Amino acid sequence: MNNPTLKQIASQLGISITTVSKSLKGYSDVSEKTKKAVIDLANQLNYTPNSFAVNLRTKESKTIGLIIPTLVHDFFSSVIDGILEEAEKRDYMVIILQSNEKVELEKKQIDLLLNKRVDGILMSLSNETGDFEHLKTIISHNTPLVLFDKIAKLVNCSKVTINDRKAAYDAVCYLIKKGYKKIAHFRGSYLPQNSIDRFLGYKKALEDNNIIYDPSLVFVCENNMDFEDGYENAIKVVNEHPEIDAIFAVTDLVAIGIIKYLNDVGIPIPKQIAVFGFSNWFMSSVISPKLSTIDQPGFEIGRKSASILFDEINLKKNNLPVVFQSIELGTTIIERQST
Amino acid sequence: MNNPTLKQIASQLGISITTVSKSLKGYSDVSEKTKKAVIDLANQLNYTPNSFAVNLRTKESKTIGLIIPTLVHDFFSSVIDGILEEAEKRDYMVIILQSNEKVELEKKQIDLLLNKRVDGILMSLSNETGDFEHLKTIISHNTPLVLFDKIAKLVNCSKVTINDRKAAYDAVCYLIKKGYKKIAHFRGSYLPQNSIDRFLGYKKALEDNNIIYDPSLVFVCENNMDFEDGYENAIKVVNEHPEIDAIFAVTDLVAIGIIKYLNDVGIPIPKQIAVFGFSNWFMSSVISPKLSTIDQPGFEIGRKSASILFDEINLKKNNLPVVFQSIELGTTIIERQST
């Protein structure tokens, strides 16, 4: 049967719609007898209120929205876990939307979340996102927004990131200290800030150690930085530059693609080519050889982003001023067999 | 600024709220002049309608809901991709909720989706789900529901599954044909139908090949069938039953945990113990030794489930009868190095 309306309940009981609505919300100015009659009939008719758990006085819906480029990724999975943990503590639900790295979808998803009146939004931007009007829409709607991982420097909101440039710099300096000299880099695409920063860290580490930067040793992972990107670019670099002795990959998934190729063609790791990843996905300690990487605290990034968002939701609810934060979490080098 | 109400727009223009509402929905019984005035003011005030893209006549919101136990899992990631592909074709958005294998959260999420008036719901049940009243709620609200993977036999709706029992039976028969005799099984928990069926397939394959079923060779993956389950149960089985020559794991992630342990302690695979997984996660062809497994068509399961759901949404919209389907997709054995 279709969802009954307040009007139907009112009509059946011979009372006003307002009284029905107040009864369902537990207003004190309605008699207990009336409230009971309304609730009993509502249950009997399987009535569902138009907005889940909406308290008419505070307009709070106990949901937040999360838009991420991809769900199925070593890093994002830990982030989601961190967000969900913070949300569950506060009895909030998280509506998750995947933008699939497409900015058009990202825009529609923002519209959806605003229309569903979520209390706040968490986002990591798509690889295609180059202008930020759609993000400013969230802010002009007075909905708290926290960006993490792939952020927009020009948008005025709280952000949680790692220092991608420093992390990449440390990774490449580590490789150089180990004696590697001809270091290739499999970078992410050109728009995302973290991809730009990891590349710049790589470049600076070479320069600071008097190694000439050679652009032909840099390969772009067009395929959204996944396993195939690693595998296919490994084929290219080994054929075009057999002299390389190490590869620094923008993510572990890419690095694992590299390792698969090198294993397939019998190139010893690290003896002939060392491999260094980024993010410390659990599989990096499972494959053979185990992958050296940057530990990227995904769970903590999720937890912290959500925590800041809930604080801002609360401050807004109480009409208190919000001071935006830019949090940078630390990273460490995890040394394993591949270097 | 806060989202303006219809009342504010009506008041500012000196017209009724009904006229404002009709103007925004494009009703033909409002003059073009009035419609334009309303739309211009609404845009100026950054008005967002209360329900995204809702057409008052058809009540269609172009969203469906998806509730799955976990996002970050070899199998579910392909399923999500299949669902998103079908949704994008039809310009639908998918609200994704993760139940985290908790039935209480699953129930709240169903309430949320019904309250947000999604057009239909796709679900794979949590490991804890033992009774199905909350699923029947969806049906009694006349919202199309399609279950996949972990389904409820007793709920009257369309379902998309694989024949878990046959797939497991084939897997174990394959192991027996290869000469393995003392085959352990790392099973899923006791409630999910697919876990029960994979166990029953294992058992029947032993019986049909005159191998006595030994319950002490069966270990339960309590940890939601993940990597740690495989690793820890492998420690147990190797210590308690060193005579085993093969392990059939309920998922690839569990199998990879087994392989890690056996590699760590130097037990040769398959020479001393063979390992067989389930689902054909991409990492199963990357690790060493490469994992034999059952190919479980995750993407196709997602695609088919979504496709059936959209058909049922359309039939319902046109007041046509719906005949529920139970689709069983085929699986194949992928033979690799681990057996």
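The longest helix of chain A spans residues 298-317.
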